[in-house]
Amino acid sequence: MNNYANTQPQKLVIYMRSGLAEQEHYGYVVRSDKTRILEKIGDDKNYPFFLRSCAKPLQASLIIDYELDKIFDLSDEEIAVCCASHAGEDIHIKTVRYLLNKFGISENYLKCPPHQPISKTAQDELLKNNKKPAAIHNNCSGKHAMMLGLCKLKNWDLLTYDNMSHPLQQEIKKKIYELCTINIDYPITKDGCGVPVHSMPLANMISGYLNLFCDKKYEKIKNAFLNNPYLIGGENRTDTKIIEESNKLLVAKVGAGGLCIVINTELEEGFVVKICDSDMKARELTVIDLINNLHWAKIDVSHEIKTLQNDIIGEIKTLV
Fold first, then answer.
1. DSSP state string for 51-116
2. φ, ψ (nearest 5 deg) of residue 174
3. CA-to-CA distance for 278 and 300, rounded, in angstroms?
4. Deepest of 5, 149, 247, 284, by most Cβ within 10 A of its Cβ?
């Protein structure tokens, strides 16, 4: 396993406030097609990073493999929420509940812990109604509902689906390794929502997404992303913005730890951005500027630094 100390991240973002550099954010970009790496910014030395929520569409490939979509007549929207890091808004909660109802499974089986919705609007709504967040508000509840559905279909235990030794998690590992063309074991940990999450080099992440989203077999997953960008993320979410503003051309998925993966479904090319300090604004600007510079889309994003009185006193520069 390569040593992280040997990696060489590159400066990707710099905040210039009234002419002085105030913040700098370092990271990596890997861009490739289905056969070769086309560009690298920063030298990651093939160090393995955890997929975090970028794993979701790869995990969801089992929906198609096991025909969960056909057996339970899953809608485009329900497949989308299985892949989502949703913001916990009404549209997300209702869709996850529809999904669980189709499976005939109670919300009580969800292993993801309760947390505040990502959406500020959804937070305010809970507060106004004097309600506490539940497991279904967790941004991973769609993924967990999908996992429960697969367990019910295969007669696997519903109570332990979050354990690495569970047959579901063993099947997910095999599938991810197949899609991402991995032939050695990389570290596995628990994701924030409690289920196993796998690590791999950034180049393998891109391979996995290209092998998924550019394969006709998984066209339902691709269409779920392209047709339902708000379900994939929601209010002020980077992946939602990219899908919405690219005219159903680009698939995008963010993940914790500063990750975002984007696939151009027409060119069958993709890139992954990894921001080392996990800064979400730096990630968004790097990803969108890269999309714009590649002429894959024209997405508006502000680079201005403003005071609370709305005075412009600087700009955020990206070096991609």
1. -GGGGHHHHHHHHHHTTHHHHTT--HHHHHHHT------HHHHHHHHHHHHHHT--GGG--SPP--
2. -60, -40
3. 22
4. 149
Which architecture does CATH list for 13-318? Answer: 3-Layer(aba) Sandwich (3.40)
What are the residue boundaries of the structural domains of the chain, listed by start? 13-318
**Residue in this structure with the two tokens 């714009």, named with its chain if needed:** 292
What confidence score (pLDDT) does residue 60 get? 98
Give the list of residues 6+ apart from residue 225 with CB closer than 8 angstroms, or none.
57, 80, 83, 213, 232, 243, 251, 252, 253
Strand partners, 187: none
Digit-coded pLDDT (tens) for 128-143: 999 999 999 999 999 9
Residue 277 to residues 40, 189, 272, 305: CA-CA distances in angstroms?
Answer: 19, 19, 15, 20
For 164, residues 6+ apart whose C-beta sits below 8 A from its C-beta are 170, 188, 196
Could you read off the pLDDT of 30-64 as tens digits, one per residue? Answer: 999 999 999 999 999 999 999 999 999 999 999 99
In angstroms, rounded to a whole number, what is the distance separating the alpha carbons of residues 167 and 154?
Answer: 10
Which residues, at least 6 apart from 99, have a Cβ–Cβ distance to it below 8 Å? 74, 78, 81, 82, 142, 145, 146, 149
φ and ψ of 265, to 5 deg? -70, -20
Instruction: Count CB atoms within 10 A of the CB of residue 86.
Output: 32
Beta bridge partners of residue 37, listed in sequence order: 32
Contact 46, 37 (CB under 8 A): no
Two tokens, residue 125: 């709504």
Global confidence as pTM:
0.96
Contact 48, 201 (CB under 8 A): yes
Phi, psi of 85 (to 5 degrees): -110, 75
